[in-house]
Amino acid sequence: MTKPNRRDMFRLGAAAGAALIAASGRGARAASPPGAPPADNAWSNSLGHGVDSKPYGSPSPFEKNVVRRYVPWLSPTRDADASMTPLQDQPGIITSNGVFFERYHAGVPQVDPKAFRLMISGRVKKPLLLTLDQLMRYPSVSRIHFIECPANGATEWPAAQLNSLQLTHGMIGCAEWTGVLLSTLLDEAGLYPDSRWVTATGSDGAHMNRSLPMMKCLDDCMIAWGQNGEAVRPEQGYPARLVVPGWQGNVNVKWLRQIQVGREPWITREETSEYSELLGDGTSLGFTWVMDAKSVITFPCPEKPLTQGPGFYEIRGLAWSGRGKVKYVDISLDGGVNFQRARLDNPILDKCMTRFTLPWWWDGKVALIQSRVTDETGYVQPTIVQKHKFWGADPVYENNSIQTWQVLASGAVNNVQLS
Ligand SMILES: Nc1nc2c(c(=O)[nH]1)N[C@H]1C(S)=C(S)[C@@H](COP(=O)(O)O)O[C@H]1N2
Ligand SMILES: [Mo]
């Protein structure tokens, strides 16, 4: 199909609309068929609800399908589980608090903010014990960062298993976090030259604890109490969580209660049985903190097929890197043979989701669409074949490989893996 000019962009859609009007004729009042002027619907002839009925808002009932979802066979219990963000319905880079993915090892505790205490102890000159009000008194920052669980995409290591963007890529969320930099509190407590490691512990039943090198703690870690214009949600660690920008989700300790400073890493259970990866050659990686660059096309995708026949569509997607900013995103329509550069939307921020788009005149034929991000360090998102070379045949974590969606002639979209 030759590329039509801009004025013709919706020509095919308009023709289909005209046919529909002819078929529906008179009496079709409820919904306006494409091409017809807006119908005079009931909501135009009556009062809407007033300010008293919804002091805390919620999405339109027509958006009830936009919810977190989970994969029952990934974990046997709901209180030690993960749910995924519906990325197919996320228009921009911010993940709505109500659908921000969840991961917890012992359920969501209900923490009383009055009883909250944060202890900063260990190899510091002046240990601190802070109430929430005291914590919130320190100078604060607001920053937009993603948090991604390294198990995001784990099911897709052996083969394309789940035909869903949400279930293959949704263990990520991006929010504006507001709080105090960890460096501010560590400066207040006073470090010694050999105060080289920090361990953060949660107050939930899992008492999740992870060791972090001092360099990262003094760089950009923060203790956040704000999330996208309101208090951090219970699922995200109310009233305060650690945000470790760009690093594995599991180090972003929620329901925070202790920051311990020491000379050595703690080598906690989470750092031996859980988050250390066995490689193909039999050796194990001690710490794998940084989330490497990743991108995915969010439209079209299995949940959002092409429903209006051949013609113009805008390919849309999200890209991010735990090492810094997204530099560019390339799109392939033929399974990775040829690539063209996508347009990036501002803002392009450090360790943050970046939105990309590409205009596409779909000829109605089968296409294999992919996105590939390059970050500001020059790191290029790898193929699954390249990943397996280093990570071995059967890994769990860190699947940041290029995703291929197969667009069928019908417009349906499937998750496929190219070997
Ligand atoms: N206290 C505590 N913090 C925790 C966890 C936990 O179980 N308990 N789970 C971790 C894991 S594995 C991930 S991926 C992130 C998920 O953050 P979210 O639920 O806000 O998306 O929280 C981390 N912080
Ligand atoms: Mo995680």
UniProtKB/TrEMBL annotation:
User: Known SUPFAM superfamilies for this protein?
Assistant: E set domains, Oxidoreductase molybdopterin-binding domain
Q: Which UniProt keywords apply?
A: Metal-binding, Molybdenum, Oxidoreductase, Signal
BP-aspect Gene Ontology terms:
sulfur compound metabolic process
Report the source organism.
Answer: Acidiphilium rubrum
* Region named Disordered: 28-60
According to the entry, every stretch annotated as the Oxidoreductase molybdopterin-binding domain falls at 105-265
Signal sequence, renumbered to the chain: 1-30
| Protein name, UniProt field | Sulfur dehydrogenase subunit SoxC
